[in-house]
Amino acid sequence: MSNVPPASDPFSVPPSPQVQPRSSSSATIWIILGVVGVMMLFCGGILVALLLPAIGAARQAAQRMQRSNNAKQVALAIHNYHSAYKQLPFTTNTNMAGEETIGWRIAVSPFTEGQRQWEMIDSTQPWDSPTNLAISTDPPMAFQAMKGNPGETGVFAIVSEESMFPPTADTKVRFRDVLDGLSNTVMMIELPNRTAVWSSTQDMTPDEAFAAISELDGAEAGHLIMADGSVRAVTNSLDRTTFDALVTREGSETIGPNF
Question: Where is the signal peptide (predicted)?
Answer without folding.
Answer: none
